[in-house]
Automatic annotation (TrEMBL):
A GO CC term attached to the entry: cytoplasm
Keyword Repeat: yes
Domain Ketosynthase family 3 (KS3): 1-151
Gene3D superfamilies, alphabetized: 1.10.1240.100, 3.40.47.10
GO molecular function, one term: fatty acid synthase activity
Name under which the protein is recorded: Ketosynthase family 3 (KS3) domain-containing protein
Originating organism: Linnemannia gamsii
Keyword check for Phosphoprotein: yes
Single biological process term from Gene Ontology: fatty acid biosynthetic process
Keywords: Phosphopantetheine, Phosphoprotein, Repeat
Length: 280
């Protein structure tokens, strides 16, 4: 079954309109790109028409496919393209389409938004817009996917680890042994992150991780202090601002967080006064 130009265009425009994306801000296309005589021209035709509904800009968006590196991975083809784009965003580099020599005679990129990128080069942007890329994936079963990915840009100045503001770092595990191992892994990671944003790390650990029975809480104001406390903990020693416990043993203290209005007012007062040790 031949791929459909109209269905690809419809999906792409729906994605751009629904999420308020101007394709002029997309500077990398990770195409399905199977190398077939019919499928590839249809894919490029659909992309060109979708982009032309928003911009007349030419030769600004790199076009490639990871299949030139890996071949067709069948059910893993789409996710391999996503991984490629994520790595490109991380390193801020546009990866080349390797083994490219002659363009399919049915494909025309001259005068289009696209060009074939044949060499590794820095991924530069000319405005405050984040780097953006789109990934397409199709299949015989009727799969028609178009995903836009963009890099994260901090909306506020990053507060680095040398900021004297205290933060609460929390770790948890199912057993005391796993908590020790988790702390060791965290210490190794922090040692590699020389420009660590403690505020962001504290937020992620508090909101993005499942809380398990064995817990560690660390009140810290610097990366160095955090490393010292984790090192001591992994060696079975105590450290200033470091607290450990188990949920079942400390259930009566946890009940305070589900208390009445007076309890909630007390907790809010502690937070305003930055008495983080009260929560540890």
């Amino acid at each position: 079954m031949a791929p459909s130009v109209s269905s690809q265009i419809t999906l792409q425009k729906q994605v751009y309109e629904r999420f308020g994306i101007n394709p002029e801000t997309i500077s990398l296309i990770e195409a399905h790109g199977t190398g077939t005589a019919l499928g590839d021209p249809i894919e490029v035709e659909a992309l060109t028409e979708s982009f032309r509904a928003y911009t007349t800009k030419q030769d600004y968006c790199a076009l490639g496919s990871v299949k030139s590196n890996l071949g067709h991975l069948l059910t893993a083809a789409g996710v391999s393209g996503v991984i490629k784009v994520l790595l490109a965003l991380r390193h801020r580099m546009l990866p080349p389409t390797i083994n490219f020599s002659t363009l399919n005679e049915r494909i025309t990129v001259e005068g289009s938004p696209f060009y074939i990128n044949t060499g590794l080069k820095p991924w530069t942007v000319t405005s405050e817009q984040p780097r953006r890329a789109a990934v397409s994936s199709f299949g015989f079963s009727g799969t028609n996917a178009h995903l836009v990915l963009e890099e994260y840009l901090s909306l506020a100045p990053v507060r680095r680890a040398d900021n004297p503001q205290q933060v609460l770092i929390v770790l948890s595990a199912k057993t005391a042994e796993r908590l020790q191992a988790y702390a060791a892994k965290m210490k190794a990671w922090v040692e590699e992150e020389t420009e660590l944003d403690l505020v962001a790390l504290a937020y992620t650990l508090q909101t993005g991780r499942e809380a398990m029975m064995h817990r560690l809480a660390l009140v810290t104001e610097s990366r160095v202090q955090m490393l010292d406390a984790l090192d001591r903990f992994t060696r079975g020693q105590s450290a200033p601002g470091l607290f450990t416990g188990q949920v079942k043993k400390n259930a009566e203290h946890a009940a305070l967080f589900e208390g009445d209005e007076d309890d909630q007012a007390l907790l809010q007062a502690w937070m305003r006064a930055k008495k983080l040790r009260r929560f540890a």
